[in-house]
Amino acid sequence: MSNEAKPAAYKTHGYHSSVLRSHKSRTAESCAAYLLPFIGPDMNILDVGCGPGTITAGFAARVPQGHVTGIDMSAEVLEHARANVEQQGLTNITFQVGSVLELPFPDNTFDVVHAHQVIQHTTDQVKALQEMRRVTKDGGIVAVREADMSAMTWFPDLEGLEKWRKIYMAIARASGAEPDAARRLHFWAKKAGFKRHQISLSAATNLYATAEEVGWWSNMWADRTMQSLFLKTATEGGYASLDEITHIADVWRQWGGNEDAWFAILQGQMLCQVEKDGCN
């Protein structure tokens, strides 16, 4: 895959094990609770940007008479996904390489098309939603959940964490991504062809407040800062020096060792009812 063909997410943090540690913690229950009540046992579901397939597997368990397809830009990460579902004994699920900007499926194929933390990393968020809508059946659902990085908040406010956020956001936007995606979902959806009455919005939060949660979150980000593609992109792109990135990793660990540490993430959630046959 050429550098130009790689998704913006790759340019921001890549697929290092420190990144997958976070992605593998995701489940359908924790990340798609807003969608689960609308899933029936015989549905055909597409999980876009499925990564290691943990959410995808949760969908498959809920459609015993249906089927789930997971796609991701990385063939390497899909090997993790296949191993995950094989371990669980799920047989109604397949994985293939593909991009949300050019979904390799005919129109009107799926009952539900889902994306978790994917749209923000694309270089054309409206095109991504148009493609998701295209492959969804009339009456089906396009479901998207995205974080909002500017709305992340934490305590204590140690020097270095705000620097981390600014560097991350600068790298993301330079690659065409939009890290403040949650607040823009409905705006992008309308540009993609959905009418306002078809769009249902909600919000949720992720909170890291117990000693176990804080330890996991801080150590993951300390490792991710120094070991993922973030380090190479930040230093070679002139966003920060090696000393600055090393300091940020140290601050993450310092923060994680504080008994009062608290970190919250705002999540935007959107369900779009697909109406075709001239309705849009």
TrEMBL record:
BP term (GO), one: methylation
Entry keyword Hydrolase: no
Spans through the membrane: none
GO molecular function: methyltransferase activity
Keyword terms of this UniProt record: Methyltransferase, Transferase
SUPFAM superfamilies: S-adenosyl-L-methionine-dependent methyltransferases
Stretches assigned to the Methyltransferase domain: 41-170
Recorded superkingdom: Eukaryota
Name of the protein described by the UniProt record: Methyltransferase type 11
Organism from which the protein derives: Guyanagaster necrorhizus
